[in-house]
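Follow-up to my earlier ticket, as requested here are the two runs.
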Amino acid sequence: MHWGLVPSWSKDKKLGSKMINARAETVSEKPAYRTAYRKRRCLVLADGYYEWVKQAGGKQPYYMRLRSDQPFAFAGLWEKWQSKDDSNYLSCSIITCASNEQLAPLHHRMPVIVEPTEYGNWLDDKTSIDSIAQLLKPLANDMLATIPVSTFVNSPANEGPDCVIEHETQA
C-alpha cells in the first residue's frame, strides 16, 4: 500500500500526499475518510514512531515505543483508487487523536494505537460505528517510552538500529 489515503472518487492520486493522517474527531464526517472509516479499516503495524520537538539549535527527534518493547498497531484506513488506465492503487493512512498527558509536551497529537484485544472489533466492518468511535482515544499514560535519539534519523537514507539509539538531547 502507498502512504497517504487516496479516496476512490479522487481525480488524481497526488491527493494522497496530503492525506497521511485522519483526525479522530472528524474521521466519520470528512468525505475523504468516512467511507473507509465505515468499511475499510486496517491495522498499521509498527514497533515505534518519531516526533520532533523544536529546541534551541534545531529539532530534537524522539522515538516512541511501547515500554514492553512489543510491536503494536495504529488504527488505519485504506482505499482502492482506480486510475484512467484501470490500474488499482491501494493507499492508507492512520488516525490521530489528542495526545495523552505524557506525550503532550512533545506533540499535541498522537497516533491512535489499537489494543490487541480490540483488533477484531476494529477490523470487522459489522462493528457499530459507536463501538469503533470508542477506540479512537489516546493510549494510557506511561505505556510508551519516549527516547531522545540522534538527528541521524532525520535523513530518509538512514535506516537500521542507529536510528533508535538513545542520545542526549540537544538543549
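Run two:
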Amino acid sequence: MKPEPPCSEQPARRAPDGAARILELRDVGVRFGEVEAVRGVSLDVASGEFVSLLGPSGCGKSTLLRTIAGYIIPSAGEIRLNGAVVTAAPPQVRRIGMVFQNYALFPHMRVTENIAFGLRRQGKPRAEVKERVAEMLALVRLEGFGARRPAELSGGQQQRVALARALAFRPQLLLLDEPLAALDLHLRESMQLEIKRVQRETGVTTIFVTHDQGEALALSDRVAVMNAGRIEQVDTPHDLYRRPGTAFVASFVGRSNLLAVEIASLSKDAISVRAGEVEFALPRSAAAFERLAIGQRCWLAIRPEHISLTARGTQPGPLLTGTVERVAFQGTHHNVGVRTSAGAELSVRTNADLQVGDQVDMTWTPRDARLLAELG
C-alpha cells in the first residue's frame, strides 16, 4: 500500500539557531484557478545557507521558487526578505538573482554583455561594470571566453555564464531552478562541485530546486522535501536520510522498505511491534511521532543497506524470515528482493552470494529502523 501525503498544517521550518534570517515564508499558498499548487508553506532560510527544495515533478517546488522571486504573487501568506514584507513586490526590487533550467542567455550577446546586462540596467558606471564582469569571469573560471556568444559554449559553460550574470549585481538571494537538468551525468556532477564552490566563495544565500536527491544531499546545508504542494520535512542531509519524518520522505530520499506493523506494547524506553506473526522491539527514539498507542498501525522504514541476510538457521533470533525472489548484480553489490513469511517484499543491498529460491534470515540494528505514522 502506498502511503498518502499528510493533510495537517505544517509548522514553520526555522533557520538554524542564532543565524540571521534572510528569507521568511509564512503559510504561503499559490492557487491557479481550482489547482492549489502550493499549500501553507512556512520556511526560514538563514544568511549564507544553501537550501534545496526537493520533490517529484508537479510538487510545487518551482512554483514556490518563482513566488519567492516575485514572478508569481501568492494567493495566501507572507514573504519577508531581510525583515521587509515583499509578498506583492515586483522582482526588480527584491535584489534576487535567478538561474533558470534553460539558462535564458541572450543569444545575440557576447558572454561579457550577458553578464553585464543587469548592471547596465541599474545604470552602473562603465568602469564598474567592466571590473565586475572581469571578477565574475574569474569566479566561474571563464577568463578568455568573454567575446564568445552562447552558441559557441558548451552546456556547462553556458550554465556558468548564467550563474555569473545572476551574481554580478551582488544579490541578497540566489535562486537556482533545476539548472543541471539538461546536462549529462558526468558534467552534472562536475557542475555540482562548481556551484558549491561559487556559493562558498561568495557566501550568497542560495535556494536550489531539484528533483534529484543526490544533488540535494551533496550540495545542501538543509533540504526541504516537498510533496503535493507542501513541505513534508526540512532537515540536514544526514538527518533527512537517517531520520525521515514521513513515509513519503523515507521512500523519496534514497530507497526505503516500508513494512506494515502494529504496535504490540509500549514501555518508557522501547516499542514492541508486530509484523504478521513476528514481534520485535525498537527503541522509543525510533518513532518519528509522539502519539503512540497499542494497536496503532504504522510503517516501519528500513533502508536496503541496513538489512543483513544470512542462510536460514545460521544465526539466532532473526527478525524476519523469507525467500529470495530476485537477484540483480550491480557491480559493487547485489540488489535482492526477499518475500517475507508475512507476505511483504523487502529490497536488500548485499554482497552475499544468493540465488532465487534461497531461504534467508533477516536482521538489522534497531537504531537503523524508523517507525512512521501510517497515513490514509
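The only thing I checked on run two: The first strand starts at residue 21 and ends at 32. Let me know what else you need.
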